[in-house]
Amino acid sequence: MNAPERHEMFTLPDGARKIELLKDSKMANCVQFNIQREDHTIANLLRVKLLAHPHVLFAAYRQPHPLEYYVELKVQTSSRTTPADVMREAIEALMLEYGNIRSAFDNELLRMDASDGRAQRAFGAFGADASEFGVGDMGARGQRADDVDIDF
Fold first, then answer.
1. Which of 54, 79, 106, 124 is the most buried (most CB within 10 A)?
2. pLDDT tens digits along 83-127
3. How many CB atoms lie within 10 A of CB 42?
4. Residue by residue, what is the 3-state secondary structure of the chain?
């Protein structure tokens, strides 16, 4: 079969940037962000967060092909700000929002584990404990293995 290797969906090649910026020459204050190794999940979250910003005029995304592991996110802003600035704000807001959800989840697991020991053992649908999913050793922000610094 001609399908690419599964790890190519997630592994960023050496020297590749997570986010590339392409300025649109036809529209003012418009940039296309090519986000490598992501799909509709993060693209739609970013789109919704960007559209909530008062200076964003347009935000949309597309995934060019199912076997190409990147999304194109186009953002146009008013003259008061730049697309890179609103993108940075959106990413930081999402990291804060989902970091809070993750912390609340961790706290609830700890609370349930303290009240009765069954909480961790009944974590998954198949009875797997929470440590299989990395929940037991998440640590603070910046100490988890899945933290990624995005520089664009």
1. 106
2. 999 999 999 999 999 888 888 888 888 888 887 655 444 444 444
3. 16
4. CCCCCHHHHCCCCCCCCCEEEEECCCCCCEEEEEEECCCHHHHHHHHHHHHCCCCEEEEEEECCCCCCCEEEEEEEECCCCCHHHHHHHHHHHHHHHHHHHHHHHHHHHHHHHHHCCHHHHCCCCCCCCHHHHCCCCCCCCCCCCCCCCCCC
Give residue 142's region: left, alpha or beta (phi > 0; psi -120 to 50): left
Distance (Å, whole) CA 146 – CA 134: 10
- pLDDT tens-digit profile of 28-75? 999 999 999 999 999 999 999 999 999 999 999 999 998 888 999 999
Give φ, ψ of 93 to 5 degrees. -65, -40
Which among 63, 6, 21, 19 has a CA at the least distance from the CA of 39? 63
pTM listed for this prediction: 0.69
